[in-house]
Amino acid sequence: MTLATVLMAPVLGDCGPPPSLPFASPINQLFETTFSSGTVLKYTCHHGFKKVNSSHLTCDENGSWVYNVFCAIVTCESPPDISNGRHSGRDEDLYTYGSSVTYSCDPSFTLLGNASIVCTVVNKTVGVWSPSPPACENGCIDLPDIPYAFWEGNKIPLRNFEVFEIGTKLKYQCKPGYRPASNEPQIVRCQENLTWSPSKGCEIETVFTLLVLLTMFEVGKLISQPRSQMEGFASGFVMS
């Protein structure tokens, strides 16, 4: 055996850096660049993939890395159906980790919740849709904003806490110091187009406005007094 043969013998079976896999990463010998024949590298599946075979790579006698695909992407079942609506997925679609679908409602229905859901992973192996699918409701959502008013809470017929059926009427009262801005009833109604009937709300009372302005005027006069007068006022003030 020549010297060249002796020097090359341990090199011929060596492997270079292992291949970069799209579904897994090594967990041992991370900083080495040359590996002898027979070296076994252990791998872990990336998030969104699950283990299906022995998760390792082996350096063979020819200096090649040998392995079988050992991680498979997690899949979800078909997205849930909802009443009075549909999702953007198709029956033949394969829903893998990261896939998403968007829901929409039939005419005259309002979408309540998150419009889109995503295929996620729990326990590293199980595909589930998150968040929960939305619902399609035939009614108005949220309370309208009436300026300077509050709702008569005991007269609000809530359904599902956020949806009001068509025809629902809500009565409001003006806050102290305010009065209705028009002679119309202090009521709003959920209309067929799923919007609330308009209301002009409340406006500040005239007498209350004058009292506020008068108070501000008097405070302003006191602040604008010369310092000498202010000190005289303070020194001449006697508690009865």
UniProtKB/TrEMBL annotation:
- Record-linked Pfam families: Sushi
The Sushi domain is annotated at 13-73, 74-138, 141-204
Has UniProt tagged this entry with the keyword Glycoprotein?
yes
Cystine pairs:
C76-C119
Q: Which domain of life is it from?
A: Eukaryota
Q: Which Gene3D superfamilies match?
A: Complement Module, domain 1
CDD domains, sorted: CCP
Keywords, alphabetical: Disulfide bond, Glycoprotein, Receptor, Repeat, Sushi
Known SUPFAM superfamilies for this protein? Complement control module/SCR domain
Q: What is this protein called?
A: Zona pellucida sperm-binding protein 3 receptor
